[in-house]
Design goal:
Two copies of one chain form a homodimer.
Chain A (H helix, E strand, L loop, with lengths): L2 H9 L12 H20 L6 H12 L5 H8 L3 H13 L3 E6 L2 E9 L1 H24 L5 H12 L2
Antiparallel strand pairs in A: 1-2
Helix pairs in contact in A: 2-6, 3-6
Chain A binds a DNA duplex (23 and 23 nucleotides) through helix 5 and strand 2.
Chain lengths: 154, 154
DNA sequence: TATTGTTATACTCTATAACTATA
DNA sequence: TATAGTTATAGAGTATAACAATA
């Protein structure tokens, strides 16, 4: 041990997280950050952020949906969703079509190009999700989802 | 049903999350946001953010700790931690004392005022944590922590 | 009056480069 | 040369107020 290291060992106490490490909230946060980082990396080849993918998935699942509905479902503020859709539309991935009977809103849908990109992105998403599921071990996914939903409803 | 509502029902399909709702990552995110929102509200009376509390807890648990060590433990970039500590110090909650043998760094500690505030904040934190634990139902906390730690290590 | 989408803006969190003073 | 703390700044992500067009 060098004298500097020795002095360091004398001076610095062994650090502790002060109980934080046995807190669900703290570990929940670490897990969520890790999952989003991993998913973001997986979506990199498609130039999509996590939010972009979620918006595309919702539109694909329910074509004709209006912006307001998507924002409500994904908890994205309307002004922020405008920007996201502008970008996706500029890339030719989604369309904003007129809604018969309501000229205020748009019917959103995925373009063929969007669908093609989504196929790859969904495969990457699935691979990522499998990694997360492996971390669950023998804890059933449904059990985990139920608990997380209950926490989300706090 | 009004004619507007009827037209709405005809036009808008029943929306779906497109499989997102059965994804651990998505629900994990909802849970984490809910937990942090609840904790932030619980800490409001003490004028502390979640990060402030975690920093105070770590310093209290290990007095004499240096800024770098705290940043590493809590995953806070050093430049950002400077601001946080500046604020806590300006409020008289923490102290930056000289470290014998290394004039580059500071030994951090909680002041009596900080300790007094922390007592209340810790009680609020504990009450919040009990709410989270209730949402776990019969799933043991240790089991949950283990799974979340494994996910965090993805 | 209320609602959809929009614009502009602000606030928080997080991240990076470069500096200083020490080691 | 490397490290601790700092400064300045930039980039996400998120939030609110106010507007135009339409209901």
């Amino acid at each position: 041990m060098t004298s500097a290291a020795k002095r360091k060992a004398e001076t610095e106490p062994t650090p502790s997280l002060g109980g934080l490490e046995t807190t669900v909230g703290f570990v929940l946060r670490l897990a969520q950050v890790a999952v989003f980082k991993d998913l973001l990396a997986a979506l990199k080849p498609f130039d999509l952020r996590v939010t972009d993918l979620s918006v595309l998935l919702v539109i694909e699942a329910t074509p004709g949906l209006q912006q307001r509905a998507i924002g409500d479902m994904l908890r994205i503020q309307r002004p922020n969703l405008v920007i996201i859709l502008d970008q996706l539309q500029a890339r030719g991935l989604v369309r904003r079509d007129p809604v018969p009977g309501d000229r205020r809103s748009y019917a959103l849908s995925i373009t063929p190009e969007g669908a093609a990109l989504l196929r790859g992105a969904k495969a990457a998403h699935a691979a990522h999700d499998r990694k997360v599921l492996e971390a669950l071990g023998d804890l059933e996914k449904e059990r985990m989802l139920t608990v997380l939903e209950r926490i989300a409803a706090i």
